[in-house]
Design a protein that fits this description.
By secondary structure, the chain is mainly β. 6% of the residues lie in helices and 38% in strands. The longest helix is centred in the last third of the chain and has 15 residues.
Amino acid sequence: EFEALTTAIGEYALGAATGKLQLEFIKTGYTSALLEVNVEILGRIQTPSVSLWKLPISEGVYWNKNHRYFPTNHPRPNQYQIKDAGIAWGTPVNPKLSIPWVDSALDPNANPPYMIGHKLSPYDAHMHRLQRVKAAPLQGTATKSEEKMQYPEEIWIIEKQFPLHSKVLDEPEKLLVELRAAAALDPGVYAIHWGALEGYDSIDPRIFLFELTAPPQEAEEGEGEDAAEQME
């Protein structure tokens, strides 16, 4: 029955009775938070600080860096006939989100990147590194022999799975879930999904794509050599 508004810097004051109390913090566009305090005697007590997560504009998987959200694109995979490899689920869509790759030995907090799901299931999430292959849409290819088959498309399919840790960031709403690989990642294209690349769409039929891009060291070294030759 006690309510208060914080000041511009987040300070607040409440008049309350003694005993165990639960404070709920609410702000539009953010997750809510709960804090339990025990007021033993009447008087002034200092409560711990509370942080609220800002919510993305829409549902999906995001890269979070410096409290900013960068969205992934999320196509639905289809079945394809893969050259010399049979049938697989994949997509011709390239990732729009490019994340600079960081050597985990230099900064383990940046690799693996900090990915967050918004309004998605906190359970049964998968992460795969993808590979580019030649493929043909499955429809209309079943009656053709392997010798006569043409593979006009280049698509992304599963190459390697990485264990993924999922952790809910806001209880009890479960709007935000941390989705982070259990180990450091190499440069490449990756997908976070809920079984869509394995033919399952009971939870979510989409895959969420991102790419880890290594710095162009070879190009920089080449430019340095050219500059040295010109100076000589």
